[in-house]
Specification:
Blueprint lengths: L1 H7 L3 H19 L3 H11 L3 H28 L2 H21 L3 H18 L2 H11 L4 H29 L2 H22 L15 H9 L10 H5 L2 H30 L4 H25 L5 H21 L3 H15 L2 H13 L1 H33 L3 H18 L5 H6 L1
Helix pairs in contact: 2-7, 2-8, 2-9, 3-8, 3-12, 4-5, 4-6, 4-17, 5-6, 5-9, 7-8, 7-17, 8-9, 8-13, 8-16, 12-13, 12-14, 12-16, 12-17, 12-18, 13-15, 14-15, 14-16, 14-18, 16-17, 17-18
């Protein structure tokens, strides 16, 4: 019975489950600044521009930490990176709650917390999942997007509630404690670096027959320097720039924007959280079809519909409009990061995917840095959110066009 059970259940899914929960917590805190925004301003007497600047620099350091995490995963292992990141997150969270000046808050929350979260982000987890999954790589990586969306859906309303009930400092300390317990347990007892031979192909008899009958085409290995000189990598970077610009804008300024437009705090948090809630279920569908349909077409559709959603969010005036736009947007909110990492793994191989994904994610966070600052500055200067949210829509529509020009795996290998 036990032997039969072991044949039916592939251990790689345990790693995916742990990685999904870690992503939920990491993204929930990194993109969950919205509920903290006004309480921090009121308590520490920062201006919107000052706090937006701290968030913007934090987004940049979150991105800069990604390639470092990817490199360390390749040299020191996933467990080392996760445990190091956890130590940084806990220390910087305590420092953040003790900070009273803008400078202290900038270093604690803006820099060190961002670096710690980068070390426990998808970049640290994508290489190990890519090794454990071949046939179902797209679906496995999509579960990380499920975690990201759950982070928005669960943590945004939760942070809103705990901030109002206990205070923003107590919320950050509580998060750090839960985060440390889950991450340490996952790193020590669940994450395993080395998959069995042929990874998840072992689960499929037909796949094994195909592999035995027709060996995979061997291609000349490509170096990191060569990969950085190719067009597909930079197209992925441009798409991730638009993704980061839009996601971090929504995370930092979505709730304040809706409150500025007359929505109460509960409706604003629910509207933003609904996007993530719907996305949790949509990723299950998108993940299944990502290994059958061309990934570039799926990526283009996701960027296109998401771009239209940003125009819709800034135009809504009543609750039913907000929840309607959030529902439609949630269907395509997930997947861009999962598809981008899967495309990089398809084109360049699993050995390079960690560092390439980390470098590409810098583009994501540069976009997030710009939008996080622009959202606050533009509103204070021009008293409108159209500049920041409208530009996010435009960037996403351009990203959709660029994604259509990406090669598929077969085209690149035959080149």
């Amino acid at each position: 019975m036990d032997k039969q059970l072991n044949q039916q259940w592939y251990y790689g899914w345990n790693i995916v489950g742990a990685a999904t929960i870690l992503t939920l917590l990491t993204v929930g805190m990194r993109l969950g600044i919205g509920p903290f925004f006004l309480p921090i301003i009121n308590d520490l007497h920062f201006t919107r521009s000052e706090l937006s600047g701290v968030i913007a620099i934090g987004m940049l350091f979150y991105g800069l930490g990604m390639p470092v995490a990817g490199y360390l995963v390749g040299t020191k292992g996933t467990r080392f990176v996760l445990l190091s990141g956890t130590a940084i997150v806990v220390a910087s969270s305590i420092w953040t709650t003790l900070a009273s000046s803008l400078t202290n808050f900038f270093f604690a929350y803006g820099i060190f917390l961002s670096i710690g979260l980068a070390f426990t982000s998808q970049v640290a987890l994508t290489p190990v999942i890519s090794r454990w999954f071949i046939r179902q790589r797209g679906m496995a990586l999509f579960f990380l997007s499920t975690g990201s969306m759950a982070g928005i859906a669960i943590m945004t309303p939760l942070f809103t509630y705990t901030n109002e009930t206990f205070g923003w400092k107590e919320t950050i300390l509580g998060f750090a404690a839960v985060f440390a317990l889950i991450t340490i347990f996952s790193a020590l007892f669940i994450i395993r670096e080395h998959p069995p031979e042929h990874a998840d192909l072992l689960n499929s008899a037909s796949a094994k027959k195909t592999t035995a009958a027709k060996p995979a085409t061997q291609t000349a290995p490509i170096s990191l320097k060569q990969a950085l000189r190719t067009g597909p990598f930079w197209k992925v970077v441009l798409g991730l720039f638009a993704c980061g610009y839009s996601m971090n804008l929504l995370g930092a300024h979505g709730v304040p924007m809706l409150m500025d437009h007359g929505f109460d705090s509960a409706s604003s948090a629910l509207g933003i959280g609904l996007i993530g809630l719907i996305a949790i279920f949509s990723t299950l569908v998108l993940g299944r079809i990502s290994d059958t349909l061309p990934r570039r077409y799926m990526l283009a559709v996701i960027y296109f519909v998401r771009g239209l959603g940003f125009f819709g969010l800034v135009m809504v005036a009543v609750n039913w409009q907000l929840f309607g736009v959030a529902t439609v947007g949630g269907v395509v909110w997930a997947g861009s990061i999962a598809l981008s990492s899967a495309i990089l793994a398809d084109i360049y191989g699993v050995k390079l995917v960690g560092v390439l994904y980390g470098l590409a994610y810098v583009g994501h966070q540069v976009g997030g840095m710009i939008s996080s600052w622009l959202g606050g500055w533009a509103y204070e200067t021009f008293h409108t959110h159209w500049i920041s949210f409208g530009s996010a829509g435009v960037f996403l529509l351009l990203a959709a066009i660029i994604s259509l020009t990406l090669p598929d795996k077969k085209q690149f290998q035959s080149a």
